[in-house]
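batch job 7 of whatever, protein = ABM domain-containing protein
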Amino acid sequence: MFVKVYEYHIREESMEEYYRIQQKAGEIYKKYIDVETTYLQSKEDSSKWMEIAKYESEEDYQKALALINQEKEIQELFKAFEAILLSEPNMIRDEDFMDRKEISNS
């Protein structure tokens, strides 16, 4: 399993817009690829978010991303997303991972 992890800071007053953007972007992604996404908000800094998206494979992700990025609406959503990021730090960190093993203690 291929995993993308993003970290960014969202303006407090823009939370509803953030949820709207993520909902719409998720709908577009699901047209092209199966993805399971988890959104985590920091308990210590409520502007800080992590987004963890799981895909079947990196190859599937890359193929779908090429198609997704051709969607006009996804480009508009990304611009709207950039507009609600905190100016400092105004960046999106991302990193790629491979899901190797799940351990359940239940």
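notes: The chain has a mean pLDDT of 93.
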